Please model this.
Amino acid sequence: MSDVRELLKQKLSTEDYNRLTALENLKLHTFVADAIELTGADSVYVCTDSEEDRAYIRKLAIEKDEEIALNIAGHTCHFDGYYDQGRDKDATKYLLSAGSSLGSILNSIDRNKGIEEVRSLLKGSMAGRQMLVLFFCLGPVDSEFSIPCVQITDSPYVGHSETILYRGGYEQFKKIGDSPDFFRFMHSEGELEGAVSKHVDKRRVYIDLEEDRVFSVNTQYGGNTIGLKKLALRLAIQKASAEGWLAEHMFVMGAKGPGGRITYFTGAFPSACGKTSTSMLPGQTIIGDDIAYFRKSDGEMRTVNVEKGIFGIIQDVNAKDDPVIYDALTHPGEVIFSNVLLDGENRPHWLGMGSELPKEGVNHSGQWHEGKEGPDGKAVTASHKNARYCLNIADLKNMDPRMDDAEGVPVGGFVYGGRDSDTWVPVEQAFNWTEGIILKGASLESETTAATLGAEGVRAFNLMSNLDFLSIPLGKYVQNNLDFAEGVEKAPLIFSVNYFLKNKNGKYLNGMGDKLVWILWAELRVNGDVRGIKTPTGIIPRYEDLARLFKDNLGSDYSRDNYVEQFTFRIPENLAKLDRVEKIYREKVADAPAILYETYAEARKRLEAAGEKYGDNISPLDLPAE
Ligand code: SPV
Ligand code: MN
Model:
């Protein structure tokens, strides 16, 4: 104890020392002292929840050229390196001790070897730099959901992003006293070239499940560095599994029903598949767009947004399709843009923003002009496909008033969706919780996107859209989801949605705005207001209910032909999908629960019987009423 205090006293200014030791937590002090010794930081800044401290981090980000001030007050732009534009799945690994295993799908490395490797990369990485120590809280503060976190980083951009994305946690740390129950994140961007990480080939994100801590080095991209985001989700999934709650890659939004009724939905979509825009549907309210925790209390399933801000994909955000975000991105307020195109007057531009793009400017590749090729010989688009914005949900006009409710909000429905060009209908309700978790969530597939490094457009299995973040064996995770409805009086209904369905000629069958109607139909279902039509795998809407919802909410006439084309049930594609996912479970998920195979077998029987009766493609008009 005295050694740790001694080192902190030597390295910290009196003020920073007093701030840190006002939190009387030995595990915390030891973590900071170890980081100082390891990284060789010159000085340490201990950030409290005060506005002055946040302002200091913002200023530092600009002074260090990690952010550029833009021409609207409060707006800045950050660039990540050319090869550092998404989550690096290959370099992200769990540190596992001999004898423990997470199954063959999850990426891991021997714990001792991994710690040694990542610590050697972190060694001396902050020489000549100031180390930032920041405190946050996952979930609302002073709540059963709260998880206090400490982030160490040498990147003011990472620190700044976190002050936007997470609730302050310095005061929360005062309340936990000497408790060891918090998450720790240590990040260094490593050696820089200009203002970007130089050695991305030595990028590492190592997750230590035994110690609830994560090391990240030689990278700046948010998904690899912002500890409280996907790094904490991995720790939270393990913690939730041990404690009997759920941590999910889900938005939380309020859908408005008749008479001003609000029904809360949570939804899981792989990155860049419409998750944020669903959480922001026009006329509805948002609680969160990315990560939700779930707990049960008094027979009710309740949820909170783990975050308080959005780190969203900017491509295709425009005044017509995403008016609420577009408004926030074009008015004064705190916004960090990343990997967009800046023109000569420091104005941000991005693909799909609804206006013509400049022919030249500065982007993640440096000076850019139309037709430019990157160092890898690939055409460089004006903005990167995974370019993002980071802002406070409180700055959006549609924030739900219960955003910070320490008790969470009751969950009416779960929604699972992916990029699926040929199988699922636009919306379908599962027959019950078990079928929903297995046939919808656990069977989710999606075509890959620019949110992760690597090839795009490849159909990939991604259960609950949470595969990238699972830190427990897959079968156990599915079982936890199945069990979670136990003791809940009215289990949420489970829906699948598909915004990406195409016809046989490759044309999208739906407009971007149609998702509002699917969610409002789900809202009516949760409240028992409309009847439906039975398919082999669930319940789909009747034409007349959709026609009314399209008219009332989008002012459009929804034709019966469109309905029939969109909701024609495709038997061979649905069977092929079951074959694909079942094969993955059989070959790669040793602990898959038996009920999963039983449910697949039942669904297959129903699909085959329907195929025999009606043929391969079944018009919804031929299917029986519920
Ligand atoms: C996602 O990719 O799912 C995101 C952004 O929400 S990241 O922080 O990269 O995970
Ligand atoms: Mn996400």
Notes: Residues 87, 222-223, 229-230, 271, 290, 311, 451 surround sulfopyruvate (ligand 1) (CB under 6 Å).
